[in-house]
Specification:
single chain
Length: 68
């Protein structure tokens, strides 16, 4: 497990909560943006470091079971 795994799990949980809240109000969370690897990089601070962003995306794929 990498350094970002828990933060990725927190991001995914946040998206799930947000989706439920929006659905309760008659809206939807756009799956084009959340949860995605790019959305995850926006959620987890990395100071614009591309190596860290790549680690976050890799952690997202591992945790979410998503394809690259």
């Amino acid at each position: 497990m990498g350094d970002y795994d828990q933060q990725v799990r927190d991001y995914i949980a946040y998206c799930e909560r947000a989706a439920r809240e929006m659905e309760a109000e008659g809206g939807t969370l756009d799956p084009k943006y959340h949860p995605t690897a790019d959305g995850c990089c926006k959620f987890i601070p990395h100071g614009g470091d591309t190596a860290k962003a790549a680690q976050i995306r890799a952690a997202f794929r591992e945790v979410a079971g998503a394809e690259p």
